[in-house]
Specification:
Layout lengths: L2 H12 L4 E7 L5 E6 L4 H7 L1 E4 L13 E6 L5 E3 L10 E9 L10 H14 L3 E14 L3 H4 L25 H15 L4 E6 L5 E6 L2 E2 H21 L2 E4 L13 E9 L2 E2 L12 H12 L1 H8 L5 H5 L8 E2 L1 E3 L6 E3 L12 E3 L8 H17 L17 H6 L3 E2 L4 H9 L2 H7 L1 H19 L4 H7 L4
Parallel strand pairs: 1-6, 15-16
Antiparallel strand pairs: 1-2, 3-4, 4-6, 5-6, 7-9, 7-10, 7-11, 7-12, 8-9, 12-13, 12-17, 14-18, 16-17
Helix pairs in contact: 3-10, 5-6, 7-10, 8-10, 8-12, 10-13, 12-14, 13-14
Length: about 450
Amino acid sequence: MDRQQEFVLRTVEERDIRFVRLWFADVLGGLKSVAIAPAELEGAFAEGIGFDGSAIEGLARRSEADMIARPDPSTFQVLPPRQSDGGTKVARMFCDVLAPDGEPALADSRNVLKRTLSRAAERGFTFYTHPEVEFYLFQGSPADSIGDGRGPVHPPVPVDTMGYFDHVPGGAGHDFRRAAISVLESMGISVEFSHHESGPGQNEIDLRYADALTTADNVMTFRTVVKEVALEQGIYATFMPKPLVDQPGSGMHTHLSLFEGDRNAFHEPGAQYELSTTARHFIAGLLRHAPETSLLTSQFVNSYKRLWGGAEAPSDVAWGHNNRSGLVRVPRYKPGKAQSARVEHRGIDAAANPYLAFAVLLAAGLKGIEEEYPLADGVDEDVSLLSALERRAMGITPLPASLDHAITLTEGSELVAETLGESMFEHVLRNKRAEWVDYRAQVTPFELRRFLPWL
């Protein structure tokens, strides 16, 4: 037994932890959980916990149903007590999903990211990420809008009517952010900033830089904490990319950087924007492979309502220095802070599976470095204001306009297939095709309003 496992077992005993929740993600980034008693924890470390993998979205076929969840002791964290639990002490750990022979499951999201990080490590790189997570807070519950699923759907009602950076003393968002951040930091998840976003009831909480695997685990925890704190306050939170027709969508703008030991591989003194050749190739990789990786960074049919809904959401493959209208932004360099040199990917939305999204972005960037992709000139203008002719002249191409379009582009992507592995690649495509078929079959309120009266 290693020292981390011993630490977990000792902490569980000393702090009288009554249940340990073992967490992992399905192909969509949905959180799965099984609770075990402390007496079972030593066995879980040694042998894992068996479960039916075929019952988890995208994890295994029925002929390969037996799976094992083995907890990663480095992710152990005590959860804050909830009033509804009567103060019962509970902890959580993320798991690696294994096949019965002990090998990593090919369709485990966390393992996909770990494999890609290993590729980067072979080149001497550590991949760091810093997400800015947006979400909406609405009154009541989702049932108030969707009912039983058979009647009319009503727009959700935001908890306030405020806008970007508005300070609302005693408001629902203000109280919510304070409570959510307290919970996150009590779990060792550091928060850098928080504020009201542009939409009514829309908020943003930014997590601090960490290695990509830690960040992905933190995002999964973050989404759970945000939803549970909202429920305790009698409201609900959603990470749906575009919940309101006439308001901004919710993104997860993510800052990316590569380090070689303690040196930021993206920084080069004296270069344009202080940006190294490695960084420029990395950006070129992000851009060249953006259309085919969009299915992982914007994975739902609703995601494309955000991308093509304006309000600074990127719909074109372009980059710029401190330009928030493109897919990739290079933040302004701060003198004397070489460690903070980075690039920001603005295409990821708040509902993405963070393990798969980070994996394909890293793979695209590494491909750019390995193949030495050239980087076209950055764009200074607001891309959304350029005409189609101007965009063509500047070599700016669009991102997929729909989930169907994204599926088609991903189907032919060698990069995504190699990154995800055959099993996960097939599961993603199968799930997304089914989602598109279901969506395509709907008769929407828009169609009824526009066509029913006169056709």
